[in-house]
Amino acid sequence: MTKPAVPPADPRLRTVEAMLDVLDAWDGAGRAAARVTVAPVRRPKAVTPIALRPLPPESWPALRAPAATLTPPAGRSHDPAAKGPPATAVAVFGLQPDALRTAVAGIADRLRNAPDFAPLFLTDAADHAVFRRHGYIAQYFPPALTAPGLPHENFRDRLTLAWKKWNVRALIDLSAPGWLEPRIAGLALAEPRTTRTSEDQKWERPFAEPVRPPTPDIAALRAEYEFRGLDREPDTFALYRIIGNDLYPRHGRGQSVRSVRFILENEPLLRGVTRRWVINRIVDPDDEKAVLAILDAAGESYLRIPFVMAEYAAIDWDFEGFDRPDYLMAERYRLMSERYRMRAEARVRRLKNNYLVNNNGARNLALRDGRRLAKWVLPWDGNCFLTAEAWDGITRTVTASPYLKYFTVPMARITDNAALTVPGFAPLATEEPQILFRRDAAEEFDERFPYGRRPKVELLVRLGVAGGWDIARDDAWDLPRPQLSPEASAVGTAGWVARLSSGMADLEAASKTGQTGREVARNEAVIGTLDALDAAVLRQNCDPKRLVAYDEDAIAALGLASPGSAAAGWLDALRAAAEAALASGPYSVLDKTSVAPSGDRQDYWHPAPYWWPNPATADGLPYVRRDGERVPGTILYEPGSEAYDRTRLQRMFDETTILSLAFRATGDVRYGVHAARLVRTWFVDPGTRMNPHLAFAQVHPGHSEITGFGVIEMKDLYFLLDAVRILERAGAMDAAATAAFRAWLEEYLVWLRTSPQGTAERPGRNNHGTCYDLQLGAIAAWLGDVPVLLEMLRRVRSRLLDQFAADGSQPEELKRTQSQHYAAFNLQSWLNLARLAESCGVDLFAFEGKDGRSLRRGLDWLLPLLSAPSWPWPQAEAFDRDRRLPLTYAYLARFGRLPAGVTPASIPPPSALKPLFFPHDGIQPFWMLGLPIPEAHATARRLAG
């Protein structure tokens, strides 16, 4: 159909016509749609054709394919769960009545020919008759949002709300030229496609319908108000702003200082208000000093809550709320989306978060302080700003209904603070509200709820206030939602308050996009800040040069031992062992008589000790497991073990350590020289050193899957690294050898943390997992790698809660055919881990689960059984009962008593203690040099009476 060429009466009408032409051309893959052209009421007598230049399709968002700034970015889409048919927004801003009628009629004509969309008109026109005539819905944008010169934030917020409310899928811009584009530049109206794995959903708590408060009994509320005499008090207000840490990347750096300055410079004098501030545990002294200097210069009154590093350092991790305490190592955790993993990580730091951010603690301090100053208390966030109009709106409502005890004050998110200085500025206030309290209100904030997991919402739920939190999903580890307060019916809503810019404009969108971005940034900020604090605490206490497995004073005391004393006997035994070590070694991986499957003789090689040829197959493959029965050549020191590397590795560990201890105790340089030679041969010299990995330790022939079982064979790095410390400090290892040894450890540590074998071993729920953390932590402590050390120290707490039952038993070890051995071996490894942690200022003995499971309870359970004449679980081989002694002396040294069931008479004196155990038992050579043995034995004698 050919349409007549009619000259538009208004230039803006010409643009509308041109856009409708483009719409026609795009409809139906290029087919022109028939439509009736609506011309101005009065036509000129002379009709002059005018060539209308269509706008290029990519210059405005079209129906089927939103373009330019409204194109959903990668990874974003509209909410598929939104109810109702998707709408198409039609923007008709800045049009004269004729142009507006033309635009609406053009859309109506399209609907007659291709009814495939539902139009929602967005307009600043006050007269909606043209929309009603066609039965269309129009969303009105008043002059306060659209007038020239006003900031665009409020317009964008209103547009975003309309987009969400009506499930808009695209937008046609038929507005006056240049009207809409500046106001929406860079605005993404589509929502993020939030990827929730099936594992994410398993961590979600079942949805519960919110409980609504009963209808308020106004008469009763009025009576109580008058009974308390509050009606005779003037309406005075105490307004607090809580200034805390700038948590980057949720907040821009320095945003607290900027907010305080902006408030002091721009907020009007508010009638009836006492203004105070709460300086809330600001970590950086310079940041706190800057805020206080501004407040002091302005003569402002404030309360200060100091951040005390020692108080923070005493706060531990919180693993409650998960279905298993070792969730950090569980496969389910690995399958979570990154967003949910961050939420879980933040949850583990809840107690630390509560101390640092202290949202509700500071709010309660302000609330309690304000009750003595005014009738109404506003314990508000530091980014709250009140215009004169906003304050008038609040006070009008509060003073009109003073019988209510609480008022919620919705917040308006501001991206440009300058907008608040524009007279008459009235933003949309749809954000989580602040709360205003009458001073006799009974409720306070629950200080258990951490920043990032609805600390203020918790109180809103108690007060029965409806909001987006009613439909938000709770994680399984979240604190339970509270019950409705008896005062839930005494709540009103008053006015609005502005939320100053966080300094991160990209996070301020009033949409699910912005909400998700804020959540991710908030968790990233919390985790990063707390980990930096933990690292600072650890650096204060962790000296890489300090001995970990042994005690400096105990070694030094050997040289001063009086004849006949226990220490003198230990020194004699140490000299004898060192002399024997001088006659052997050095050892190299080149010395084995077989070769690793790689063919590289410098690769460590040792088959799995409990895996045997399969009797059911001709070639013996795949090998099968026979727990407790060792393959020939895999028992330390036995004939045939020369084919592999395990025996030589253990000799190197033990002899290097014995020689280094003797060198430190006696000063005999022969011991130091040979010990350094052992280290250089195994770890440093290019022609003899072991490649820094265990890819071929405990190989299972015939099995394609990779296991990490062989990682445990390097566990005794824990005490070897003390030997290297001694050698390095004495100059027995020169700088070049030490640097090369450091490089070997760094490369091995990377392998340990990232290789298939290392990642398979890390989640081990028995002694394998314990020994993984022991060697990883020992290496990190030697290297001074604080982030890795922090990671290990957090994981071992989770591991401890998983490995020990509430009664102190070790369920995984008791399943073994050598259960007595493995129960003692694993607990010994835990004591080694505890000593490592103690050297860094961390007390693992003080950590326990809510049901009391702890290292102490593990010792309380095992030590009486090791002292008993029989063992009630399987133990296929003979067990050395002396293995109880290192555990018992460690208990005495720590607790100053013996566990129930262990008698002092059963504890031999120091002179009778055995210095060397079979290496498979996990007890370091001359273990007594790592404990205050004389003091512990004196305690045992005192207990014996």
Q: Can you offer a commentary on this structure?
A:
The strands form 5 sheets. Strands 7, 8, 9, 10, 11, 12, 13, 14 and 15 form a 9-stranded mixed β-sheet that branches. Strands 4-3-2-5 form a 4-stranded parallel β-sheet, sandwiched between helices. Strands 1-6 form a two-stranded antiparallel ribbon. Mean pLDDT is 86; it is low at 1-15 and 22-84. 41% of the residues lie in helices and 9% in strands. The relative contact order is 0.07. With 945 residues, it is an alpha/beta fold. α21 (646-666) crosses α23.
Question: Summarize this, please?
Answer:
With 945 residues, this protein is of the alpha/beta class.
Range of helix content: 40-55%
Q: How far is it from the N-terminal to the C-terminal residue, by CA?
A: 114 Å
- Structural class comes to alpha/beta
- Alpha carbon gyration radius: 37 Å
Task: State which percent range the strand residues make up.
Answer: 5-15%
Major β-sheet, in short? 9 strands, mixed
Low-confidence stretches: 1-15, 22-84
The rough form would be described as elongated
Q: What's the β-strand tally?
A: 19
Number of discrete helical segments: 32
Residue-averaged pLDDT: 86
Give the helix/strand layout.
Layout: H1 11-26, E1 76-77, E2 87-92, H2 97-113, E3 118-123, H3 129-134, E4 137-140, H4 143-146, H5 153-165, E5 168-173, H6 181-184, E6 191-192, H7 198-202, H8 218-227, E7 237-243, H9 255-266, E8 273-280, H10 285-297, E9 301-305, H11 309-313, H12 331-335, H13 338-348, H14 350-356, H15 359-371, E10 376-381, E11 384-385, H16 388-400, E12 406-413, E13 431-438, H17 457-462, E14 491-493, E15 497-499, H18 512-541, H19 552-558, H20 566-582, E16 606-607, E17 611-612, E18 624-625, H21 646-666, H22 669-684, E19 697-699, H23 717-730, H24 735-754, H25 756-761, H26 767-783, H27 786-803, H28 811-814, H29 819-838, H30 855-867, H31 884-895, H32 933-944
Parallel strand pairs: 2-3, 2-5, 3-4, 7-8, 7-10, 8-9, 12-14, 12-15, 16-19
Antiparallel strand pairs: 1-6, 10-13, 11-15, 12-13, 17-18
Helix pairs in contact: 1-2, 9-10, 13-18, 19-21, 20-21, 21-22, 21-23, 22-23, 22-24, 23-26, 24-26, 26-27, 26-29, 29-30, 29-31, 30-31, 31-32
